[in-house]
Amino acid sequence: MRGDIRMQASACAATLAAMTLLALVWPSASHAAPPAETCTRLGTTDAAASIPKALVPEVNQALGTRMLTHEAMATTVFRCVDHRVMVCTTGANLPCGKANTRREPTAGMAQWCRENPNAEVIPAVVTGHDTIYAWRCQSGSPQIERQTLQVDPRGFVAEYWKPLR
User: Fold this and answer.
1) Over the Cα atoms of the chain, what is R_g?
2) Which residues pair with residue 84 across a beta bridge?
3) pLDDT tens, 106-127?
4) What's the Cα-to-Cα distance from 18 to each of 15, 23, 46, 108, 151, rounded to whole Å?
5) By the 8 A CB rule, do 154 and 44 touch?
6) Three-state secondary structure along 37-49?
7) Which of 101, 95, 56 is nearest to 74 (CA)?
């Protein structure tokens, strides 16, 4: 439990640091440059920002979706990778933040497996939605069954991020 709290505190500190950096380098919403211009200037940044209204048609095309403008703007973010605009739409099982690549089980997983010693699946509510592994219980211990998602060079789930144009 104490390890989980430390991980959460570390994640909060990292998020706060990213937000601080974002505030320093990202233009304010009222003076925001188009994402393509921003990415040309910044090159690469792990800080994600909300998409502007004008980007919705391109987002729908890139993601193969038909989101309404308000839906797309509420759920889709962009970040810059090698001067290109990359987009991701969040969902219940589609986190746009950095992927959890840890191979060590959490205290929550250990507890789940003590209570469900041979469970074929440890649910995402226990593992977290950002893990790239499918976890199971084997004789009361959490085990990685397989890797289910790929990670890009910046640490994000590659399948969730799509380039524009």
Assistant:
1) 18
2) 81
3) 999 999 999 999 999 999 999 9
4) 5, 9, 8, 27, 19
5) yes
6) HHHHHHCCEEEEE
7) 56
